[in-house]
Amino acid sequence: MVHDFAYGAIGFAKEKPRSFLAEKGAKEVGIELYTLSKTYNMAGWRVAFAAGNAEMIEALNLLQDHLYVSLFPAIQDAAAAALIESQETVQTQNERYRARKDAFFQAAKRIGWNGSVPDGSFFAWMKVPDGYTSSRFARLLLDEAGVAVADGSGFGEFGEGYVRIGLLVSEERLVEAVNRIGNLPIFQKKC
Ligand SMILES: Cc1ncc(COP(=O)(O)O)c(C=O)c1O
């Protein structure tokens, strides 16, 4: 078992995102991967770690030795600082995503657009109106509202019927995007 815990620090529910390694017996059967991309805004720095089953870590280490060269030391130092020093910024960032999520879903509700409110991560998965595929709807939003979303079908069979919104801009900008979408004739008719 390999558990990807990329969004382990971004959670809005009472219960924190659960680490695989917190489960009994986890270390006997698997490892957890943790990228620093999301928690510390280090996307593109290619820095992450794996923890868990010793044999699997050893195998990973062997592969790493042969497939990669080491990370630039400044990135290693930055990663160490990110992990060791105060985690206050992680909390602040989590609250920022929570505020964006709330603003986005309030605006979506006003235009009658349904989706599932996430308990974690910085994505919103929104329903595609009847008569549209994810791909056609994503295209419509881009062409007619000037809003870029990710076509859900690109994430596998269960993504069809949805588009994915990244809550990666300010609340004002997210609300503006929803308002523009709400002005489309299809939303005037009711989604
Ligand atoms: C679920 C998930 N896992 C892993 C990653 C990989 O992050 P990175 O390649 O930046 O370390 C991402 C990044 O988008 C992600 O969304």
Automatic annotation (TrEMBL):
Keyword list, A-Z: Aminotransferase, Transferase
Record Gene3D superfamilies: Aspartate Aminotransferase, domain 1, Type I PLP-dependent aspartate aminotransferase-like (Major domain)
All copies of domain Aminotransferase class I/classII large, residue ranges: 2-181
The name this protein goes by in its record: Transaminase
Cofactor(s) named in the record: pyridoxal 5'-phosphate
Superkingdom per UniProt: Bacteria
Keyword Transferase: yes
UniProt keyword annotation of Chloroplast present: no
Source organism of the structure: Listeria floridensis FSL S10-1187
PANTHER family, A to Z: AMINO ACID AMINOTRANSFERASE, L-GLUTAMINE--4-(METHYLSULFANYL)-2-OXOBUTANOATE AMINOTRANSFERASE
Signal peptide: none
Pfam families to which the protein is assigned, alphabetical: Aminotran_1_2
